What we know:
The chain is 81% helix and 0% strand. It is an all-alpha fold. α3 (24-59) runs antiparallel to α4. The two termini are 15 Å apart.
Amino acid sequence: QKVRLPLSADKASTDPLAASSRHVLDEFVEHWENEVEPLLRAAGVEDAKLERKALRQAKMPGAGPAVWKAQADVQQGRLWSSAQSALQAFLQPARALATFLDVQVSS
């Protein structure tokens, strides 16, 4: 049973038969390494930068720490949205594969 992963724009333009003949685990690993993991890594780096910036700004006179923390929370939510979308796209095929493997092992 084949489970299709969402293809990126550059992969969609390649030969569809070549993409469909690959093993599903290879597609999972490739999709994770090329699409999901870089988004998560970039979001983590930017999140750490925002956290450091919020801590610095909270020490400055003027607006209180709660104001800077609230602003950082809003920015962090926006920052993680693309990574969350990539994970959501990965979730359905991963669940389908888990169900398939569960059925195969149980049989």
